[in-house]
């Protein structure tokens, strides 16, 4: 049966073509999903515009608005296994990972519910006895939330929760390959009693549904997570309309292992940083710099740990790496590795797709490590979004910093060193929105997240993340009984 889409509180067969999604582990049909048309976008936006202005939502006390998010968090927590399994079938990530993403979605809903209840307004310093000034925040209106396929439920909640907490309506355009998580969230918000129209979920092609949504005159913010090229295009769309955007984009994050690093800690952190999610993570630590003094020792351990990773069926317990999202994506990853070979790179492990036994049916690519290239090589400069690590050697701190920062991206970076003064000094000079010292790919909902340079604009998460979905207003309150002397 075709899965309907969610427009303004109604489950409907959208006007776009029905699309199929496939289980990346064996290519079998996963679901058939209705998609939206431009007319559906129009209907959802008009309903959203009415809904956020409705006094029953606008004037609802913050703790009552928060209650909906708390209820959704509880509903998610009751269905972790079901939601994780659905997501594993959608994008092929191992169950342990998708469970983590589901729990993170529940935590995000709770966090922004609490932020909503406890948000303070400001009383700016008073400069006159004639009037007092207050600063308040208002919702923006209708928000377009456009998300990628790699961590659906978590990235969607990261936009829906603060946007609703701030009093807006949200229309989600999930990735073509993974619309099921967003549709499941719509069901849970409906069950939690969110008034109709405040949330719509419109699956469909980015170039049709995403484009129509972003360009709609009533959409007052585009909150986008995805590739840098799409983000740049959406920034142009937003510039035409003079509306804010938040853009969470791609990365090519450097990880640095100093000569005084705890080798075991660092090697395990590096393996996790690049190969978890099969490298399909914006913050994957895909460019590794190792100090010449420990290069051989560190690389020996890194290759050992990599050889022990279990690549396999994502529903099997103990699998470290599942398949890549699709055959097309596998071809792109393999193309980068071929290019590295052509540029003189030495493939230390991996480098050829896996096709033994059940893997012949899926899009499996092994953890791959490439050495012998310089930082200017294509695989050091372009985002591969797959299980491919490039290794570079260094021995001078200034040269290391120049090379690590020589990238159009600036999403994240890792530093492994027992010298905290040095780690701090390097961390402050690295051009990246997130720095991990002696850890990697760890997240807290209370720490703002976003990119430097072409990795993005704006920040998500953090207590003040809710303000990204609001606009500030100053209110002047006259205190004087004396009429203004300017005109009599
Ligand atoms: P993508 O840019 O191709 O697609 C992302 C979303 O944008 C999808 O929903 C897609 O349908 C939509 N889209 C495409 N063209 C559009 C258009 N013209 N108008 C409106 N919407 C459009 O990215 P992807 O391949 O789905 O995801 C992988 C990328 O996402 C990687 O570059 C990765 O680094 C990035 N990413 C970034 C973060 C972060 O937080 N910085 C997190 C996850 C993924």
From TrEMBL:
It comes from Marinobacterium rhizophilum. Keywords: Oxidoreductase. Belongs to the aldehyde dehydrogenase family. The active site is at 248. InterPro entries: Ald_DH/histidinol_DH, Ald_DH_C, Ald_DH_CS_CYS, Ald_DH_CS_GLU, Ald_DH_N, Aldehyde_DH_dom. This is Aldehyde dehydrogenase. Pfam families: Aldedh (PF00171). Residues 20-475 form the Aldehyde dehydrogenase domain.
